[in-house]
Write a structure and sequence with these properties.
alpha+beta; seven-stranded mixed barrel
Length: about 230
Amino acid sequence: MEPVRLRVSYRSPTSLLQAFTRSVGKGGVSLPSKKPLERGTRFIFELVAPDVVEPVEVTGEVVEVRAAANGEYVLGIRYLPGRSRRGLDAVLSRLFELHRDEQVRRYPRVPVHLRAQENSGLVTVWSVRDLSRGGAGVELEAGDLPSLAQMGSPVLLEIWLDSGSILLHGEVVWMTAGSGRPRTPPALGVSFGRLLPDTLLALDRVLVLDGFPAGPWKAELRFGLHAVERMP
């Protein structure tokens, strides 16, 4: 049976990558459907954006079918490994090209939408929204900024890859408490310190979205003494 192909358009390479990492990082997606497709049905999602010559292809498989209240169905689709990197490499190349005109930031930022837990007392859940060689931007999913997150506080971001974990240490360099209208979550920026050569090599792999295991992608964020005790 031929896979079902769905083409999804985005307004820019950055918005495409944001959607890609948010969805693939979770390991799957739920889609509405007018009919109950069989489990095992394959999907190929073609993600396209202006000035990107190759679509980013993501392959998925229906693993769950459930009835919705409106008489339609919801398909649970799990993403499968082994996709071609041609489209992904093309959109990343375009992102890096656009950064050449950037006057403020030294390194290009790659959207990752990586879920990270902080376990210093109460469990707090963050979203690492972007990464670069120089640092990271993180948002709090709910609640207020924890007391350990202060300007200048040590930070340790641990990301799990298919080859183990990578430890990225730095400090908080900006903070915002968020706002209600329009809603913006509390967030902060991390500037990385001097990273070891092996760590930089692993980070460079992350920045081309390579080396992640099958979703959900996982990370952990630590502040203050909780970060210092784990720093390499």
